[in-house]
Write a structure and sequence with these properties.
alpha+beta; Rossmann fold; two-stranded parallel sheet; apoptosis; cell membrane; dDENN_dom
Length: about 290
Amino acid sequence: MCVLSLVHLLYPLEYMFPVIPLLPAYMPSAEQLLLAPTPFVIGVPASFFAHKRIKEVPNDVILVDLDTNHVTVPDDLFIPPLPEPDVSILKNSLHAALNRMSMTLHDERRGSIEACYAVDADIVDVSCRVAMVKFFNSPNVFGDFSEHTRTLRLYPRPVVALQSESFLRSRPQCTQFITDLCRTQAVEYFAECCLCPKNETFVRVQAGIDSPAQIGDKAKWFSESLMPVHFMVYPNDSSLCSAYYAYSRESGGLESDSDDNESRSLDSSSSIDDLVFDGPDEGTGG
């Protein structure tokens, strides 16, 4: 679940490489997947390395231990830092969303903390997604992204080219992170999706709307605003209505006839039993 959550948090970008939520430790030669020549995101249980007797991971693999909150990065692997102040805003937004999972209510009348309650997890989920979308739309990342794209073809499939040089020059801070990111295949797909975005929620977040009641997909947020639609399947004076009532009467009569037939068959079977089988007190004549 953690692996899938990480991949989905990249929206509106799409991870273009293999993703394995959980690699079984007892799968034969499973450790060979760690030597794949392509980028990957693979989840492994804590017993994986002990079971496979792996003492060291490959020197190009970043290991994230969720049990100890520890990240192991190889010495010869450089990860460019995220641009500031955009990453600080992202961290604050994520911390604010996660802190809402357990909040305390202060009762001023009693002068003490009254109770702790858990906030709706769906609201926290929407807040985290909104924080990520706002980060990608920040000035130092993908702000005004569509102004630096050129449409080469619309049909049968859109083809959009990113003018990377003008895009990088327009960044307030042209960092190594955005320089490497804009050359990935995920950004090419992102440019095509931005041409005609189909996700209404993404469009609303870009417009500055972040209320779960307006961008959420749960019925509890918008069911009260829906208007019921009352309609009649068929009018009472239609031939379909007459046929339905006639069928109901006939089926009711058939059911009563079947009940009578069953009772008569039971009576006849009991009389046959009396003729064929002797009673317990009856004897045979000699």
